[in-house]
Here is the input.
Amino acid sequence: MHRRERGPGVGTVVAESGRERPSTPAHGLTRDRIVRGAIALVDAEGLGALSMRRIATDFGVSTMALYRHVPSKGELVRLMSETVFAGEPPGSPPLGWRAQLEREVRWLWVLYQRHPWLARAMAALTRPMASPHAMRYTERVLSALNGLGLTPTQIIHIHLALLGYAQGVAAAVELESQARQDTGMTPEEWMASNEPRMETIQTAGSFPILSTLFGEEQFDLDTLFEFGLARMLDGVESVVGQSAGPTSAGGLA
Here is the structure.
């Protein structure tokens, strides 16, 4: 259930009714409470809503009181990402490098769906954050690729290609979350409101192939993600096969 809400630093947005303002006095403020309060805020309103002043207002303290625990907004975002990355996929790791990579990237996809801001916060592929929890994800991916005859460059490129793919699709999750706040409409409602315009484009005949695809089936990000992940792993399997011979090409570690 959602409700329209106004508050400090907020326009009219669709906010989760379950998110409550923290009522922590200044003497009870801790870094962990600040980080978890910031996560709750950006889960509900997006990364653009985050500021040290906004968090301080939500806690009912001065901005300077916040800085005693977290030195900057950049560090706060790092701590938020680190907190979200705590833990690992449930269950025992499967056999075979491909199954292991599927498990890890799907786990990452679930995190991005739960926290739409996370993909953008972690998007700097060439300037990774020093975050032990996030680095454990990387270590598990690299471990799945270790011993397959790949070069160090191939291993890191495969890791970054999979990470970049997941982040790219997850960017649509964040955009959809923001669009829903801005418009108050679900994807289905938005499509219905734009149906007359789409029909006008189709009947004009300017896009004969594209027009045949409208309405064939509902577009779904999960389906898109799974399709792309399988094709990415097909490509990795080709590289593994070329590097290590037929014994590894079938997916055996």
